[in-house]
From TrEMBL, chain A:
Pfam families: GatB_N, GatB_Yqey
NCBIfam families assigned to the protein according to its UniProt record, in alphabetical order: gatB (TIGR00133), PRK05477.1-2 (NF004012), PRK05477.1-4 (NF004014), PRK05477.1-5 (NF004015)
Superkingdom field: Bacteria
Reactions it catalyzes: L-aspartyl-tRNA(Asn) + L-glutamine + ATP + H2O = L-asparaginyl-tRNA(Asn) + L-glutamate + ADP + phosphate + 2 H(+); L-glutamyl-tRNA(Gln) + L-glutamine + ATP + H2O = L-glutaminyl-tRNA(Gln) + L-glutamate + ADP + phosphate + H(+)
PANTHER family to which the protein is assigned, alphabetical: GLUTAMYL-TRNA GLN AMIDOTRANSFERASE SUBUNIT B MITOCHONDRIAL AND PROKARYOTIC PET112-RELATED, GLUTAMYL-TRNA(GLN) AMIDOTRANSFERASE SUBUNIT B, MITOCHONDRIAL
Organism lineage string: Bacteria, Pseudomonadati, Pseudomonadota, Gammaproteobacteria, Oceanospirillales
Protein name, as recorded: Aspartyl/glutamyl-tRNA(Asn/Gln) amidotransferase subunit B
Function text: Allows the formation of correctly charged Asn-tRNA(Asn) or Gln-tRNA(Gln) through the transamidation of misacylated Asp-tRNA(Asn) or Glu-tRNA(Gln) in organisms which lack either or both of asparaginyl-tRNA or glutaminyl-tRNA synthetases. The reaction takes place in the presence of glutamine and ATP through an activated phospho-Asp-tRNA(Asn) or phospho-Glu-tRNA(Gln).
Domain annotation Asn/Gln amidotransferase: ranges: 328-480
Keyword terms, alphabetized: ATP-binding, Ligase, Nucleotide-binding, Protein biosynthesis, Transferase
Automatic annotation (TrEMBL), chain B:
Swiss-Prot/TrEMBL keywords: ATP-binding, Ligase, Nucleotide-binding, Protein biosynthesis, Transferase
Residues forming the catalytic site: 76 (charge relay system), 151 (charge relay system), 175 (acyl-ester intermediate)
Species assigned in the record: Aidingimonas halophila
Name assigned to this protein: Glutamyl-tRNA(Gln) amidotransferase subunit A
EC number: 6.3.5.7
Record gene name: gatA
Length: 483, 490
């Protein structure tokens, strides 16, 4: 039987507000435990929440970016359950009237095709603290610094059909929130986490299969691996005549498998009800319009502009617009050097290769966009040849100079295009290699084509790489064929 | 000194008749000597009060004369006070010393008042008799065999007995008005949102409201002016300027339209209370008011709706008392669940547990629509009853309670206790203000027991309510009567 996998994602995005969603405490990451938890975050008797307007603005921007409905009224609800790192015994969230209604996210697949993934809604909520089980000898440490950090939960429709689609969706969400500047999108620090709902059904069947929810998957790669494992597990189970249980599972990246956490029977009754301490959020059209006007250029728009105005291929445009950091970097390089195609080649080629080797993100690049732009300018205006350019790049990467021009000067890498100077070097090489010259002249055209490389190499060596290779080639041919 | 109102004390202090230190000492001595019989205080903060009195006296010597400077008050023990135990009448918070001040505590301190301590109350404000307090019941100063009412029973008893000239209470379903009526003092429940709830331990967040309890409407006006106002730390407090309530107290009542809700004079109303309220209404007629009967058709649904909404909110509000960060923690928990179960089982009393159970049930999947949602619909109907009534009349009048104060240990059945709030609860559901003033007495066991007249007005009509109450007190002397214990000297 052919099986179809059905996937829905719940993505939690930590919003980049300076203070918490319901208190004035800082949201900075990595502070001393419990040093960023005020009376409100601690849930002391008598304290009250006050909604952070910045979180509302961020959620609205996201909603507008995915063409979602923004309801006039949204309401905070309490989700009641006991856990030591949940100070109030409830999480303030939005159950019945979320701030962002249905919308759509476009994803691009490997073959360049696009697909619309529905967003059911997105809502605001507060994060819990952290339970630390190590270092406390039989006890648990509670760090409430994270308690009250604003989260936006984006709930997709079950519109994805493969692990690759799910990863592409997650990347698209990542791109949107980082473009909007509403989250740093840092998955390693937990700024973006996701719960994955997976079910399978025989191809052609309309009814959904029973789903399993895989909790807290925190990288693009893990999402793919978790889905692929889970899909196989469910298909195997069904083909062996078993049934899939509705349950919550955990992905273990070490073992590359999912494990059962709790079944439906063990599920909590969260007793949601409207939080009486917070007023309904009422957004008028003027406010929504104001947020709309402040939206930056979004990934899809940028991709289209890169193709239409800069003449980049769909593939290049897609990669260069995949994150705001990448796009911003590329645009600086392009503006400095004035050649979009060369800029695209360098960002995706030399730079990306070096970053990948060192496992760095583009934000961590030792070569600034302005520096790379300066380098590409010198390639574009033929000051240096390709080989020298790679040497300059490496020098910039190593911090050997502040600008490409400094390095070109210091290393004497400026391309030699003076025909007289090149001819002098060629004459010397011909004089130094009489045997090879004889061999060349006795060979037929096909062989000559291969043999000329030796002479080019010798001349380039003599010029310490600075000679213009095209010129060398042409002049050599001329002289050897004459002689 | 102890029989003076706030206004009189202020004049005497500014005239140099006595110092703030002498005043505080006199009240502390009374508490020391008399509160053994009443049990109206949980914590007396004598040292802090005396230190504050020194400061007030020094300022007065420096020619500063704020109206309330150096005048003692008391705070219901539900109000967080920095560095002072704030128990909420519960074993759960017996060890809780608040690290911060409630907004109203800051405001009261800013006006110069001096807190003598924290008054007894029903546990987590759940009760109508002060009998659910972990610290034992408070006795009614008029008749020690009677309850003072609740949940602000300690505040009411302390004021009535002359242990403090005024106090702050909170009212979720009648918790200021019912004990004020039982103890023969004046108590005001402001409009929801008029007074900040920040730092007031939540029972039912959509109903809780703090207010003044004092001898006279004039004192209530003075205190309300101090504690009212918008607070950025409480989203449900209303951004609306605070009027000069005392300036409004001289208005004539000629032409005032009074409505008597038919439903407030029905079955279960004690004849003595009925007679006292009708006499009070006659007094108003003599002052030029007109009276007509009016209907609040959904009155019978107020108690059922309240006992769905309040416990639902309470069950969630009280989840934070889990033995993890503060409050009672059981000995030697074997695991997390054991820690939760035993800490909460040991820390909470019967009535609190009952309401947590009710609330947990009504919010549960499968019951939420039938109980919680339905109760919210009923709440809107009840609110509309009042809005409609105030299209016809200026104020509503009726009994504050169906009976005078009942005997200690008399009401064993929770439902008969809940029915105590039959005339007060709808007011919280509607969010409107209500005031009770002393309007007569009924026979008791060891002494007479006071009767309260309740006056209700539209949202934010506190000025009018205070004036209507004040005019009554200008023409009657019920509020001047003192229980025997108040006549005793320290």
């Amino acid at each position: 039987m052919q099986w179809e996998t059905v996937i829905g994602l719940e993505v939690h995005v930590q919003l980049a507000t300076r203070s918490k969603i319901f208190s004035g405490a800082s949201t900075a990451f990595g502070a001393e435990p419990n040093s960023q938890a005020c009376a409100v975050d601690l849930g002391l008797p008598g304290v009250l929440p006050v909604l952070n307007e910045a979180a509302v603005a961020m959620a609205v921007k996201f909603g507008l970016a995915i063409n979602a409905e923004i309801p006039e009224i949204s309401v905070f609800d309490r989700k009641n359950y006991f856990y030591p790192d949940l100070p109030k015994g409830y999480q303030t969230s939005q159950m019945y009237s979320p701030i962002v209604g249905p919308g759509e996210v476009e994803i691009t697949l490997d073959d360049g095709a696009t697909k619309q993934i529905g967003v059911h809604h997105a809502h605001l909520e507060e994060d819990a603290g952290k339970s630390l089980h190590e270092d406390f000898h039989g006890m648990t440490g509670i760090d409430l610094n994270r308690a009250g950090t604003p989260l936006m939960e984006i709930v997709s429709q079950p519109d994805m059909r493969s692990a690759k689609e799910a990863a592409a969706y997650l990347k698209a969400i990542h791109a949107i929130v980082t473009y909007l500047g509403i989250s740093d999108g840092n998955m390693a620090e937990g700024s973006m986490r996701c719960d994955v709902n997976v079910s399978v059904r025989p191809e052609g069947q309309e009814r959904f299969g029973t789903r399993a929810e895989i909790k807290n998957v925190n990288s693009f790669r893990f999402v793919e691996r978790a889905i692929n494992f889970e899909k196989e597990r469910q298909i195997e189970l069904l083909e062996d005549g078993g049934v899939v249980e509705q349950e919550t599972r955990l992905f273990d990246p070490e073992l590359d498998e999912t494990r059962s956490m709790r079944t439906k029977e063990e599920a909590n009754d969260y007793r949601y009800f409207p939080c009486p301490d917070l007023l309904p959020v009422v957004l008028d059209q003027a406010y929504i319009d104001h947020q709309r006007r402040s939206l930056p250029e979004l990934p899809a728009e940028k991709r289209a502009r890169f193709q239409d105005e800069l003449g980049l291929s769909a593939y290049d445009a897609g990669i260069l617009s995949s994150s705001r950091a990448m796009a911003d970097y590329f645009e600086v390089v392009k503006d400095v050097c004035g050649d979009a195609k060369q800029a695209a080649n360098w960002v995706q080629g030399e730079l990306s290769g070096a970053l990948n080797r060192e496992n760095l993100s583009i934000e961590q690049s030792p070569v600034a966009a302005r520096q790379l732009g300066g380098l590409v300018s010198r390639v574009v205006d033929d000051t240096i040849n390709g080989k020298a350019a790679k040497e300059v790049f490496q020098a910039l990467w190593n911090g050997e100079g502040d600008s490409a021009d400094d390095i070109i000067d210091a290393k004497g890498l400026e391309q030699v295009t003076d025909t007289g100077a090149i001819e002098a070097m060629i004459d010397q090489v011909i004089a130094d290699n009489p045997a090879q010259v004889t061999q060349y002249q006795e060979a037929d055209d096909a062989k000559r084509g291969k043999m000329i490389g030796y002479f080019v190499g010798q001349v380039m060596k003599a010029s310490r790489g600075t000679a213009n290779p095209q010129q060398v080639n042409a002049l050599l041919k001329e002289k050897l064929d004459q002689a | 000194m102890h029989d003076k109102t706030l206004i009189e004390l202020s004049r005497a202090l500014n005239a140099g008749e006595f110092s703030s230190r002498e005043l505080i000492e006199a009240f502390l001595a009374r508490i020391d000597r008399l509160d053994g019989r009443l049990n109206s205080f949980i914590t007396v903060t004598a040292e802090q009060a005396l230190a504050a009195a020194e400061v007030a006296d020094a300022k007065r010597d420096g020619n500063e004369h704020p109206l309330l400077a150096g005048i003692p008050i008391a705070l219901k023990d539900i109000i967080c006070t920095q560095g002072v135990k704030t128990s909420c009448g519960s074993k759960m918070l017996d060890n809780f010393v608040s690290p911060y001040d409630a907004t109203i505590v800051e405001k009261l301190a800013g006006s110069g008042t001096i807190s003598l301590g924290k008054t007894n109350m029903d546990e987590f404000a759940m009760g109508s008799s002060n009998e659910t307090s972990f610290y034992g019941p408070t006795h009614n100063p008029w008749d020690l065999t009677a309850v003072p009412g609740g949940s602000s029973g300690g505040s009411a008893a302390a004021v009535a007995a002359g242990l403090v000239p005024a106090a702050i209470g909170t009212d979720t379903g009648g918790s200021i008005r019912q004990p004020a009526a039982f103890c023969g003092i004046t108590g005001l429940k402001p409009t929801y949102g008029r007074v900040s709830r920040y730092g007031i331990i939540a029972y039912a967040s959509s109903l809780d409201q703090a207010g003044p309890m004092a001898r006279t409407a004039e004192d209530c006006a003075l205190l309300l002016e101090t504690i009212a106002g918008h607070d950025l730390r409480d989203s449900t407090s209303v951004a609306r300027s605070v009027p000069d309530y005392r300036a409004e107290l001289g208005q004539s009542l000629s032409g005032l339209k009074i409505g008597l809700p038919r439903e407030y004079f029905g079955e279960g109303l004690d004849p003595a209370v009925d007679a006292a309220v009708r006499d009070a209404v006659k007094t108003y007629e003599s002052l030029g008011a007109t009276v007509r009967e009016i209907s609040l058709p959904h009155t019978h649904l107020a108690i059922p709706a309240y006992y769905v909404i309040a416990p639902a909110e309470a069950s969630s509000n009280l989840s934070r008392y889990d033995g993890v960060r503060f409050g009672h923690r059981c000995d030697n928990p074997s695991n997390l669940i054991d820690l939760y179960k035993r800490s909460r089982a040991e820390g909470f009393g019967e009535e609190v547990k009952r309401r947590i159970l009710i609330g947990t049930h009504t919010l549960s999947e499968g019951f939420f629509d039938a109980y919680y949602k339905k109760a919210q619909q009923v709440r809107r109907l009840i609110r509309q009853d009042f809005v409609d009534a105030f299209e016809e009349v200026d104020v509503l009048m009726g009994p504050t309670t169906p009976t005078p104060a009942f005997d200690l240990n008399a009401k064993k059945d929770p439902v008969s206790m809940y029915l105590q709030d039959i005339y007060t609860i709808a007011i919280n559901l509607a969010g409107i203000p209500g005031i009770t003033v002393p309007a007569g007495f009924a026979e008791g066991t060891e002494g007479e027991r006071p009767i309260g007249l309740q006056i209700l007005g539209p949202h934010f009509a506190e000025s009018q309510l205070l004036n209507v109450a004040h005019q009554f007190q200008q023409n009657t002397d019920w509020h001047l009567r003192r229980p025997a214990i108040a006549e005793e000297t320290a």
